Amino acid sequence: MNETLFTNGKIVTPLGPISEDILIKNGAVVEIGTNLKTSGEIVDCGGSLVGPGFVDIHVHFREPGQEWKEDIGSGSAAAAAGGFTAVVTMPNTEPAIDSGYLARFVLDRGREEGLVEVVPAGAVTLRREGEKLAHLDELWAAGVRIFSDDGSPVEDAGLLRRAMEYLAELGGVVAQHPEDRGLTRGGHMHEGSVSSRLGMAGLPAIGEEIMVARDLALVRLTGARYHVQHVSTAGTVELVRKAKAEGLSVTAEATPHHLMLDHREVERMNPDAKMYPPLRRPADVEAVRDGIADGTIDAVATDHAPHAAHEKDVPFEDAPRGIIGLETAAAVVNTAVGMDAVEFFQRMSIGPSQIAGLNSQGRWPEPGGQANLVVFDPNAKWTPDVFASRAENSPFIGRPLKGRVVATMYDGRMTFRDGKVQR
Amino acid sequence: MKHFLNTDVVSREDLESLLDLSDEFVEVLDRQIPKVPALRGKTVAMLFFEASTRTRLSFERAAKALSADTMSFSPSTSSLSKGESLKDTALTIKAMGADALVVRHQSTGAQWRIADWTGLPVLNAGDGAHQHPTQALLDALTIRQHFGTLDGLRIAIVGDIRHSRVARSDISTFSKLGAEVTLAAPSTLLPVDWEGWPVKVAGSIDDVLDVDVVYLLRIQAERGGASVFPSLPEYVSRFGMTRQRFALLAESAIVMHPGPMNRGVEIAPEVADHPRARILEQVSNGVAVRMAVLFRLLGGEVHDE
Asked: Do the domains spanning B7-131+283-298 and B133-282 agree at the CATH topology level?
């Protein structure tokens, strides 16, 4: 009999944290109460929160095709270290995940690693080329629920309309990387005062907003479930807020870095401050924070985008875009946004899990549920330096953060404890 | 001063002392043997990752006039074309014994990275559309020679400011030295956001013909500057320094251009060749200011033999 008892923790329930113990047996929560006993392993939580394992619906694990940056094994380790029990991998691999067998490959590799539930997102278009629909039925049958050409937008409105109509029938989510390339082409950072001073071509905020506005018109037409990936501007937050008020089935995510950092980070021209969408103005950071705090933005999603050290060790404009985020996400959100424990777990676990349609993730701890848990100390102070990820392209290295993952349990098994990934 | 990368962070005092030193080197360059032994035994490497004639030759001439040795590098014939990284190229050149690096690169901030990687003094000879600090010094020297000071002068910078590293370096240098700077360009060639810049902005060259200095810039087609206005004739009609406009300038006013010029576009041929166009003086002064900066960074002493 395989048992684990979490003691001395605060279990997060929809009504707030309660100081009780939680007993896990054979992969499931069996009891929550006081003075529970076990013959198995005891985890002293030291007063930390015990909540549903974090769920990240936007990661890049680079497998297949770019395993020198990351693979499903190293990415899973990073997820476990960050308190995550499920991730949705973006399909911009080589080849792109645009058909059933490729989705099954990612699922199989995730199970093989066994550190976190790895669920692939499928491409909307074949090879993410934006010309023909991907094998949406095959992907759906393989278990794909989120469809995105992430890294690129689905630009053609006619094609997006067909994808929305088709996926509305299936119940899938169309997730858009909103970027009008007529407005953003050649850009390296947010277009504004800092880009003007540095003489760098910029990606204007409206390049994101104009595509979200267009897509919302298509949502009205098709009734599709639509998800805005990596919201980065005040204007996008406002569009999503209004769309929700209107009753459209719209959800949104924001990255931890867009909650803490603004475009002034680029003044030092550090390539670890380069990503798409770029770091925006302080007022945008404020608006995205407010959107997360009030639930307009349903989910934190890291856009974990690993690159090898030598690839980032070049001038800013020549560097590939993207930063890693899994291992700093919870701390950055906890540091940047004032939320209570319930709201925090809603954005880090419940909300994203609902978007991705994951059945055994994102559930408040209760007897009977699969044991996907994280022990999180919201008061611990630390400074990120080393990572379980294969990559280290993080702008948070050396930055003091508040809130640290103490332990992660996936499917009843400890995957992270004592600062180490438990393989 | 360890590096010379960005005029924004150089104080007025340092700018003036570099200009004073440049004046001394102007005098050296006038001698029968225009050479001093100040940097004898030092090696200056020229790393020009982007096409350049005048700046590279000017730096080479400056280094040699200080008796430094030079090494030169051009990307088309180098290991870069075999896939070598910028970092490895820089470290390789350092290992050959360079004491300072003069770097031009098409990417903003490349010089800052190279300075970090190598620990050597780095002179920015132009990074992207960001900074070209020795150009700003030579421009300031040219203006100071003509007017005695920049204090209180009115200077108009006209043309493709958005894509111009010269403009960015000039604006901070001229304004720090007391001049009042006005930019004139179509809105698509102005920086997107110039809030907080020490400048005024005019909508046409005709609004700035009452200034002391008209500084003309080339349209940077290679950085996308050509697709942002309807046609060259339309550009010339609003922003070209034509003969007619030149005739409206004050008798004391001068015209400048960093080169390379496109005659008939931003500057009429007759204006380019007029004695009050100081374009060749700018080129000559370039050697002197680059001597001054090399001398400052490599810590030489002035002594005649």
From this structure: yes
For residue A326, give the nearest of A274, A262, A280, A384 by alpha carbon.
A384
Q: Which residues pair with A11 in a beta bridge?
A: A18, A50
Angle at B52 between CA B47 and CA B53, to 5 degrees: 115
Q: Which residue has the tokens 């370096």?
A: B169
| Facing residue for B192 by CB, picked from A186, A191, A317 | A191
Name the residue type at position B226: A
Select B7-131+283-298's CATH number: 3.40.50.1370, 1.10.10.10, 3.40.50.970, 3.50.50.60.
3.40.50.1370
| Calculated CA dihedral for residues B6, B12, B18, B21, nearest 10 degrees | 180
For A281-340, give the secondary structure using H, E and C.
CHHHHHHHHHHHHHCCCCEECCCECCCCHHHHCCCHHHCCCCCCCCCCHHHHHHHHCCCC
Per-residue pLDDT reduced to its tens digit, A270-284: 999 999 999 999 999
- Tokens, residue B197: 């810049």
Fold held by A3-49+369-421: Urease, subunit C; domain 1 (2.30.40)
CA trace torsion B115, B120, B124, B129 (10° rounding): -10
- Give the whole-angstrom CA distance, residue A246 versus residue A240: 10
Q: What top-level class would CATH report for the domain A53-356?
A: alpha beta
Evaluate whether B55 touches B126 at the Cβ level (below 8 Å): yes
Q: Is the peptide bond before A95 cis (omega within 30 degrees of 0)?
A: yes
Its ipTM equals 0.93
Tell me the pTM: 0.94
Give the pLDDT confidence of A199-220 residue by residue, as tens digits: 999 999 999 999 999 999 999 9
Task: Determine whether the interchain pair A202/B192 forms a contact, defined as Cβ–Cβ distance below 8 Å.
Answer: yes
Contact B261, B121 (CB under 8 A): no
Tens-place pLDDT, residues A158-214: 999 999 999 999 999 999 999 999 999 999 999 999 999 999 999 999 999 999 999
Q: Do B192 and A192 touch (CB under 8 A)?
A: yes
Domain definitions of chain A by residue range:
3-49+369-421, 53-356
Closest CA to A270 of B3, B109, B168, B124: B109
Strands A420-421 and A413-417: antiparallel
Peptide bond just before A306 cis, omega within 30 deg: no
A58, burial (CB in 10 Å: exposed 0-12, middle 13-18, buried 19+): buried
Catalytic residues of A: 303
pLDDT of B77: 66
Tell me if residue B112 falls in helix, strand or coil.
helix
Question: Best residue in B112, B192, B228 to probe A by mutation, most A CBs within 10 Å?
Answer: B192
3-state helix, strand, coil in chain B (%, to 5): 45, 15, 40
State the angle between helix axes of B279-298 and B12-29 in degrees (0 to 180), rounded to the nearest 10. 110
Contacts of B224 in chain A (CB under 8 A): 186, 201
Interchain pair A317, B163: CB under 8 A: no
Query: Could you tell me the fold of the domain covering B133-282?
Result: Rossmann fold (3.40.50)
Residues of B in contact with A310 (CB under 8 A): 85, 87
Q: Are B87 and B117 in contact (CB under 8 A)?
A: yes
How far apart, in whole angstroms, are the C-alpha atoms of residue A84 and residue A53?
Answer: 5
B158 with B205: CB under 8 angstroms? yes
